[in-house]
Amino acid sequence: MRILTTSLFLGLMTALVGCGSVVIQADPDGGLPGDAPAVTDRPPNGDVPLPPVDRPLVVDVPPVIDVPRTCTSSADCAGGTACLGPEGCAIPWTCQPALGRPCTDDLSPFCGCDGRTYYGSSSCPSQPYLYRGSCDGPPPPVDAGPPPRTCQGNVDCPAGSMCAGPEGCGIPWTCQPSQPCTRDLTTYCACDGTSFMASSTCPGRPYLRRGACGIIPPPPDAGPGYCTISGVMCRIGVPCRIDACTTCTCGGDTVACAIDPGCGMDGGTEPPPICPPQDARAVGACALFLGYAWNGAECVGLSGCSCSGSDCRSLYRDPMQCELAHRLCPRPI
User: Fold this and answer.
1) Model-level pTM?
2) Are 280 and 320 part of one and the same domain?
């Protein structure tokens, strides 16, 4: 009876497996598990099982980057390529395609990055270089770019810039980078004689002076001035007498002192001294300051490339020294 029951159970299990409905996992210790989960090959809705999905095998392969070969001359490069790069020694040169690159047949000097001068085509130098020209000479000046654009107002300037310049109508204004401006309003007298109002820090156009054009500005008070003979101080526009023969008048930015004609020195009867101009002339259109010289009427500064004359070694380095040395010389009124 036990043998029949076991055979019947195995046959029933075989039939169930053959139908493909349920697979029961066997207990490792033998027998039928009481709590073993059932694994089914049918979807939950009872439809036909889905076929397996073929997933492609994805392999992460890093891309191959073709790094240009660095070089110090075209001899380091393969055929059809040349050693190319920008001016200067900070960026390495690399081998690049040279086909179709026009090159001139002339020879120009280049200062190489090794400090030696070499010659090559002016349009196709063959190796890195610091600058064009011989290493023995100075490098060329740095190009500061085009000169700033002149303007008559902010409307003449591109975005991000403003029309700016000094007070007065003698120097053209130019477009400069924009700066913060106050929001107040101040009256200006424009160079065309009309008045306009603008920010006190950013007029935006050339102007003659601050204030309306119809109002004459008061003369600036320069305060007390010093006579150039013995340092006597006097007020602006008020003459002050130094001695019996010399009178100073403080006016404007300079002080003029003169000796009365026929007045003797120290109140005597001697004629005033004759002060011929110094024999010193500036030669050449250079900005080199040479010194101050007496020209027969006043002390003037000399600038040029060199000095010509017998008194070049007697020039004064300070204008006050020149004035004191000629303090008794007659001057035109």
Assistant:
1) 0.28
2) yes
